[in-house]
């Protein structure tokens, strides 16, 4: 055995580890949709500028992202009845992290990230920020409130960093 063979093995295993880390999904639930519909694997709401405007209108109308047991609530009945909203419900119900531990994992991965977010991940990160802000407004326990507030700040910083790097 050559003296450099162990060095090559170490180098290749390090490269493999780096590739696997880079491919690690920020939102693993996007690939495990509970509804079982193939078309909803890795769902994305925004496919065009029209969709982005619709999402902005839905958020402006006061959309509420409920906890794990509930769907989204859109006060405007006309917006809520649109067929495109079904995909947004899947994203908010099944893809977004809802527990503080999941959100902390997400923010930790976002702070270590060197590359800009994909459009899907950016959309999900903004929607997660909306969910956290809505949750923070409802939390009364001071330690929990501080933990959720910290999550809002960390996620905002990650979004800001991504916008600045794009």
TrEMBL record:
**Which PANTHER family does the entry mention?**
PROTEIN FAM180A, PROTEIN FAM180A-RELATED
Q: Tell me the leader sequence span.
A: 1-18
In which domain of life is the source organism classified? Eukaryota
Q: Name one Pfam family in it.
A: FAM180
InterPro entries recorded: FAM180
Q: Which UniProt keywords apply?
A: Signal
Protein name according to UniProt: Protein FAM180A
């Amino acid at each position: 055995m050559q003296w450099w063979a162990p060095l090559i093995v170490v180098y290749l295993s390090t490269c493999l580890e780096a590739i696997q880390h880079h491919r690690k999904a920020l939102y693993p639930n996007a690939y495990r949709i509970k509804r079982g519909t193939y078309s909803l694997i890795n769902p994305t709401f925004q496919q065009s500028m029209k969709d982005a405007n619709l999402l902005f209108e839905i958020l402006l109308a006061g959309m509420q992202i409920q906890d794990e047991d509930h769907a989204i609530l859109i006060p405007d009945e006309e917006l809520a009845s649109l067929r495109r909203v079904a995909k947004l419900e899947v994203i908010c119900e099944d893809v977004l992290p809802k527990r503080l531990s999941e959100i902390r994992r997400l923010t930790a991965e976002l702070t270590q990230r060197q590359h800009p977010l994909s459009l899907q991940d950016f959309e999900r990160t903004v929607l997660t920020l909306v969910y956290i802000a809505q949750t923070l407004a409802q939390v009364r326990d001071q330690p929990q409130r501080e933990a959720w507030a910290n999550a809002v700040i960390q996620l905002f910083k990650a979004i800001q960093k991504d916008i600045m790097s794009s």
